[in-house]
Amino acid sequence: MVQMRADVLVVGGGLGGVAAALAAARAGRSVILTEEFDWLGGQLTSQAVPPDEHSWIEQFGATASYRALRNGIRDYYRRHYPLTERSRGWTDLNPGAGWVSRICHEPRVAVAVLEQMLAPYRGAGRLTVLQPYRPVAAETDGDRVTGVTLAHRDRDDRIDVTAPYILDATETGELLPLTGTEYVTGFESQAQTGEPSAPAEAQPMNMQAVSVCFAIDHVDGDHTIDRPADYDFWRDYKPDFWGDRLLSWRSPHPRTLEIVERSFTPNPDDDPLSVNADQRLNPGDGNLWTFRRIAARRNFTDGSYGSDITLVNWPMIDYFEGPVIDVPNASWHLAKARELSYSVLYWLQTEAPRPDGGTGFPGLRLRGDVTGSRDGLAQAPYIRESRRIRAEYTVVEQDLSLAVRGQHGAVQYPDSIGLGMYRIDLHPSTGGDNYIDVGSCPFEIPLGALIPQRVENLLPAGKNIGTTHITNGSYRLHPVEWNVGEVAGLLADFCLARGESPRAVRGTPRLLAEFTDRVSAAGVERRWPQIAGY
């Protein structure tokens, strides 16, 4: 078995993992970064989820390195894509002119930019990327993790890696059970958290739906896929709270739970520069085609794109039949989630009601080349909710709920190490819950949420921080995951330099002041200006 060692081991190459590796490598540390799938970038790339971001993202409320990623994506389009002169001059270029984000784009562009950001450290020998590898075992010594065993996804190869600091940036907190780190899953009870939206009894197996996304365009010809084996089941499936069959244009409005009907118009002749992607004003999901559109053909010179490309991450692909964490049949549920996505596509191609009174859009074409997958769907499932560490501080609903905090704004933490903003947005769950969607104040990220209650050298670097089922709904999005990972990488370096533990950094005023100064110097914003939530 191959043995490797580094100052910092980052397991998981999603947005948090890449940010952590960058932060530690920039500080001069040797870093090993692992990733199970073919692309780095997690929810932004292999999971094919365009960025979900707050209304002020172009002005403030993001780290300098996350802003560099966004600027890099726009620059990549300007350098390499046949943009119209009008779109090329669009300062806040939105390549897809999608309504969900001010920078909807094709996943592989983000892959290219992330690789560019990492390239200098790989070239210098400071960063080693192990791909595709996943963690399968770990060694511990008391309250410390001493090493992690990684297995190649496609071969029998295994690698043992040791490091003084190990960061868990996996999508589901895979290192937590492997290392014996205390964690929670699912819905905590109101008695445990005091949260207004929590149930009376804890529900550890009640987790948000997962989704397997896919990209489509609409061109001449019949591109109908083979009828999925489970199509009849999904076509007739009608959740109690849905108001119709899952495969329909009707579903609950996340904020009001009123049953609403959405439209679907492929390739509308709209002006990309007229799209105002501000979820404070409009959730943007009225026309599902433009909701998560990632390539607007009118942004490009005539003939470059025969069709828009849109990303299907819609209510009807949410799979909530069972959890995929800490259950023996997780792979079965993930397979069923993929089957649901194929069934949605087949329904769109053959039975979906059209505005002209007909049914089916056979011109819809699955674009596996856009998602980089052999089977046409996203390489990885979009997992909204991870295992979460039992942390020194757990963020609860009443810390940031607009209904609770009102004009006072979210709680300001003395150990703030970043910012975020997103509504408390919970999709239907494996416990049978409908949407839970609560207004949020612009919030801070407390360092205490990154520190396990017992384990000394394992740090979360993604969605596995100390949030609850409810507050995870706000903390799970792209800019926050990046911020968490970046600060985890900075914290590992800071602790190595001073011979102190993360717990001591938070618990010692002098060290905490030094560390927060270091965080600020790295371009991480720690306080919001006076603005109202939504």
TrEMBL record:
Superkingdom, taxonomy of origin: Bacteria
One of the protein's GO biological processes: NAD+ biosynthetic process
Membrane-spanning intervals of the chain: none
Protein name per its UniProtKB record: FAD dependent oxidoreductase
Pfam families: FAD_oxidored (PF12831)
Source species of the chain: Micromonospora echinaurantiaca
Lineage: Bacteria, Bacillati, Actinomycetota, Actinomycetes, Micromonosporales
GO molecular function, one term: L-aspartate oxidase activity
Database matches in InterPro entries: FAD/NAD-bd_sf (IPR036188), NadB (IPR005288)
